[in-house]
Every structure is written in structure tokens, then in C-alpha cells.
Design a protein that fits this description.
The protein has 369 residues and is of the alpha/beta class. The protein folds into two domains: 176 residues, Rossmann fold (3-Layer(aba) Sandwich); 163 residues, 3-Layer(aba) Sandwich (Rossmann fold), CATH 3.40.50. Helices cover 46% and strands 17% of the residues. The protein is built from 17 helices and 13 strands. The strands form two sheets. The chain has a seven-stranded parallel β-sheet with strand order 3-2-1-4-5-6-7, with helices on both faces. The protein has a six-stranded parallel β-sheet with strand order 10-9-8-11-12-13, with helices on both faces. Helix 10 links the parallel strand 9 and strand 10. The radius of gyration is 20 Å and the shape is globular. The model has no long low-confidence stretch (mean pLDDT 89).
């Protein structure tokens, strides 16, 4: 079978790669063509465009890069028609993928949406569009199944694929060129997009002067230019590791994390965290008018209460960040967060999401034969 997969960011690349591996186990003649990243490319197939060329964060940034985005959509449509897939698999990335889903419907291409776009946060009525254009919806958050019932959609909750990615790391993972010492580690996860780490890292890095007995280490995404990260840090003693986020989290005492999938990854490694976010003020103002959810971190959204502190926009400053980090290093706040993490893991449905998703993809393909 021929599979066309579109993932537009680092987390989608991770989940896309795991899905591809499980598809291969069921279909040894699988042919993949995809938009994604290094992890998907390592599984095999043809990479059309890397996610680092697609990652535009915020309303203003999308407007400024609209010409590039429209060009990418046109390229994608042409490539899908040329490839003639048996199935199109879309992974999150709604601004792009929902347009492609409508296009695929018109052209009679079976479409499976794996990892539902977060329409429950804003533009809820896009559920009607998804009902028209998607043949099967696979969700990874426990509350999404009930949400889609409003649109008369019977979706499949497969569990969260991060549990698969993290499961089985009982032994300490190696970190090349990383010299172990006795100081406790504070992990800095500033995001994978240029707009993210440019906004987050300078403030995160200033914590080093207030916690001199801790070792501060930045987790750089595989596609990130380390020299750019280094230029954002005033303290040269702050270390940077590339492509080793999970080994770093295994060793971390606490973490400062840019809002996104990394907040959930950090929780699943049982690392107490402060969630940080700062975007352009224009994008933030627009988001405040449109976004309906109470929280920005996946941890708090899934638990439906405050488990991790969120420092957003103006609240993301040196004084508040220092205060919250100190709380994490003290006993009671830290212990409470770790107890909440156990409940979070239970809500996520257990490991096996990638396998269940692959089984549904093959089930859909067999039904059209």
C-alpha cells in the first residue's frame, strides 16, 4: 500500500515515525511519502519537505509568511496527486492539514486524521468541516471522544503515543560527550521553532545566576542550530545537548518548558516543571479573543486543573520564574506534582497508541478493497 503522511512539527515527526514502524509490521510492502522530519526519514520512504521549513508560530507570523504557506499547500496538493496514495494520513498541524483534507475529499482520496487538531480550543465549528472531509478520526486525548459527539462523529480514542515513545526507559539512556557530575540538573526546553527559543531562552538562562549550585542544560531539537542557541545565552557555563531530550529528562531534577508537547513529555518522565510561553503581543491579543481553553499546557488541559504553573506572556519574567523554580526545588510543591503525574498517566490510556492507530489504518484500507 502507498501511504502519504503529513506532519508539520517535531512532535508530529515523532508520532509519525512510530506510526510508520507499526504500519510496516502489518504491511511489509508499505511505501511512504511524507512531510515530516529526521525520525520519519529514518524509518524509510521519501521526505518531501522537512518540518523546519513549515513551522510558523502565532497569527502574525502566519500572516507574514502567508506566501510561503500557500506555496507549500500548492506543492503538497500536486505531490499527492502525483503519488496517488491509497491513504492520506494527517498528523495534527491543522492550519495546513485541514485544507489538504478538503482537497483530498474532492479528489476521492481516503483520509485518516491521526492526532486530532485542537479545535476544542478555538474555532470549534471546524468540527463540521472535519466530519465532511475525514474518513476516520483518531484522537489521543481522553476528553476528545465526547467533544466530537457534538458533531455526530464517532472517533477512536487510541491513547497518547508519547506513552509508547517513553515506555521502557528503565535504564539510563546514554548522552554522548556528556560528563556526569554530582550537581542536580535543571533542564531548559525552549521549543523547536526559532520564534520560540528566541523568546524563551534568554529568560530561562538567567536562572543560572540564582541557582549557582545547579547544572543548567538546554535541550536542542535535532534540527536546531546550536550556535544560535548559544548566542541567546549570556552565561557560557550553561550546557547545550542536541537531540537528547529524553536522556536529559531522565537526569533532570526540574525543568523550564515551553508550552507544547514537551510539557507532557516532561511530566511522563516525572520531572517537576514550570511551563513558559511568550509570543508576539499581536498574536497573543488575537489568541486571547479566540481561544476558549483555561490552560495552555497539555498537563493542565488533560487533568482539567492546575498541576503545573503556567507563566504566560508578561508573567514570563525573571522574578516569577525564579520564584516558581524555587518552589519546585522545595519539598511540598514537588511532591504534590509527582502525585498528580501518576493520575495523568492513568488518564492517558496506557501504552500501545501507535499500534492501535496502525491497526485502524489497515482496517480502513481493507474495507475499501
Amino acid at each position: 500500500m502507498r501511504y502519504y503522511i503529513i506532519a508539520g512539527e517535531a512532535s508530529g515527526d515523532l508520532h509519525g515515525a512510530n506510526l510508520m514502524k507499526h504500519i510496516q509490521q502489518r504491511d511489509n510492502s508499505a511505501i511512504f511519502q511524507f512531510w515530516g522530519g529526521d525520525r520519519m526519514q529514518a524509518v524509510g520512504g521519501s521526505l518531501v519537505k522537512h518540518y523546519r521549513e513549515l513551522a510558523f508560530m502565532g497569527f502574525l507570523e502566519v500572516i507574514l509568511n502567508l506566501k510561503t504557506i500557500l506555496s507549500n499547500i500548492k506543492t503538497c496538493k500536486q505531490d499527492i496527486l502525483s503519488f496517488q496514495p491509497d491513504v492520506l494520513i494527517l498528523i495534527d498541524y491543522p492550519g495546513f492539514n485541514m485544507r489538504i483534507a478538503s482537497f483530498a475529499k474532492v479528489n476521492g482520496i481516503k483520509t485518516i486524521y491521526y492526532i486530532s487538531p485542537q479545535i476544542w480550543a478555538w474555532k470549534e465549528k471546524r468540527g463540521y468541516q472535519l466530519k465532511k472531509s475525514v474518513d476516520r478520526m483518531l484522537t489521543i486525548l481522553p476528553f476528545e471522544k465526547a467533544f466530537y459527539k457534538k458533531f455526530d462523529m464517532d472517533v477512536d480514542f487510541v491513547g497518547h503515543p508519547l506513552l509508547d515513545a517513553i515506555e521502557g526507559f528503565e535504564e539510563l539512556l546514554p548522552m554522548p560527550n556528556f560528563k556526569e557530575d554530582s550537581r542536580p540538573i535543571i533542564a531548559l526546553l525552549p521549543g523547536s521553532r526559532k520564534q520560540e527559543y528566541a523568546a524563551m531562552l534568554p529568560v530561562m538562562g538567567k536562572m543560572k545566576q540564582y541557582f549557582p549550585h545547579h547544572r543548567f542544560v538546554v535541550a536542542a531539537a535535532p534540527s536546531t542550530d546550536v550556535a544560535v542557541l548559544r548566542s541567546l545565552l549570556a552565561d557560557e557555563s550553561i550546557e547545550i545537548v542536541k537531540g537528547a531530550t529524553y536522556p536529559l529528562l531522565q537526569r533532570a531534577t526540574a525543568a523550564l518548558v515551553t508550552s507544547g508537547t514537551a510539557t507532557l513529555e516532561t511530566a511522563l518522565f516525572n520531572v517537576p516543571q514550570v511551563v513558559c510561553y511568550r509570543g508576539s503581543w499581536v498574536s497573543y491579543w488575537i489568541a486571547r479573543q479566540l481561544v476558549k481553553v483555561k490552560y495552555i499546557s497539555l498537563v493542565n488541559l488533560i487533568m482539567d486543573r492546575v498541576v503545573v504553573t503556567e507563566l504566560i506572556q508578561g508573567d514570563f519574567n525573571v522574578d516569577l520564574l525564579k520564584k516558581e523554580l524555587q518552589r519546585l526545588l522545595d519539598g511540598s510543591a514537588r511532591d504534590k506534582m509527582l502525585v498528580d503525574y501518576k493520575e495523568l498517566r492513568t488518564l492517558l490510556g496506557g501504552p500501545g497508541a501507535s499500534s492501535r492507530a496502525a491497526a485502524i489504518v489497515l482496517e480502513e484500507l481493507s474495507s475499501q478493497e
